[in-house]
Amino acid sequence: MQDLHDGLRSRDHFEILGITRGATADEVKDAYFRLARPYHPDAPLDASLEDLREKRSAVFIRLSEAYEILRNPTSRQRYETSFQARRAPRPEPPPPAAGSPAPASPPAPPDPAVDEKLAATEFAKAQRLMGEEKYWDAIQILEGAIPRLEAMASRRARVMLARAYMKNPKWRHRAEEVLGQVVREAPDAPEPYLVLGELYRGAQLRARAAAMYRKVLELSPRNEEALNALRAIDAEDRPPSGDSGAGKVRKR
Predict the structure, then answer these.
(1) What span, in angstroms and rounded, lies between the C-alpha atoms of 83 and 85?
(2) Could you count the other beta carbons within 10 Å of the beta carbon of residue 170?
(3) 71 exposed, middle or buried (CB, 10 Å; 0-12, 13-18, 19+)?
(4) What is the residue-wise DSSP string for 108-141?
(5) So what's the pLDDT on residue 46?
(6) Cα(56)–Cα(5) distance, integer angstroms
(7) Which of 177, 180, 200, 245 is deepest in the core (most CB within 10 A)?
(8) CA-to-CA distance for 96 and 193, rounded, in angstroms?
(9) Overall CATH class of domain 112-237
(10) Running along the chain, 252 residues long, what does each successive block of 10 average in pLDDT?
């Protein structure tokens, strides 16, 4: 666990999952679920390893981020293209001519803190695009930014990504998977349950939606969105009240 945690920043998505760059979609999935089980925040942890609980959670988040990128052909292709550009060998410069100044030092490697700030800027841009209903553009930005955000910002970005996925009925299952990961990582956060409620209600799964809204109210009792949604579901399920005399033959 310690070794994997220490390599979170330096290892790419393939190395984190322990797979080759030619791994199939099934191999990506198998590797993720094999590794995710022991690192899941709810998995039993020996008392002697209690001090590693936060590191285990960080590893699980990183595994989930790698899986989210590599399981999707579009985001995987974009990641691989970016990865190859970063790793491509640079041509050796010609030797300096006699009397010429010494060549400049090679550029410093990317600073993770700077990269995270850039990702935060991209997240803000995605928020603006969501407000403009440019959901596909927002998805493209979020899928690239999420792996570079710190834990809390990553969860917020994934909830937003799920909202964007929900705009396409064919991607509802993908949205559900993303929200499920956020719930497992942060079970006390009300927002992913709220969005799951919206997803299930949109799919006419009112019982599931109501369960999600009730969970929101357990965590945030005054949440107006959840309260209003539960009232609406209750009204939809309530049989219409008709005239008590309807259907009866009146006596002359």
Answers:
(1) 5
(2) 7
(3) middle
(4) PPPPHHHHHHHHHHHHHHHHHHHHTT-HHHHHHH
(5) 74
(6) 8
(7) 200
(8) 62
(9) mainly alpha
(10) 64 86 90 84 72 76 84 84 60 60 56 69 89 86 82 89 88 89 91 95 92 95 94 83 50 44
And the tokens for 134? 């440019």
Tokens 């299952």 correspond to what residue? 173
Q: Which amino acid is at 135?
A: Y
Q: How many residues does the chain have?
A: 252
pLDDT at 101: 62
Domains of the chain by residue range = 10-71, 112-237
DSSP string, 66-79: HHHHHHSHHHHHHH
- CA atoms of 69 and 116, how far apart (whole Å): 17
What are the strands, taking DSSP E only, across 165-204?
none
**Helix 151-165 to helix 135-145 angle, to the nearest 10 degrees?**
150
142 token code pair: 């979020």
Joined together, the tokens standing for residue 79 give: 């990641």
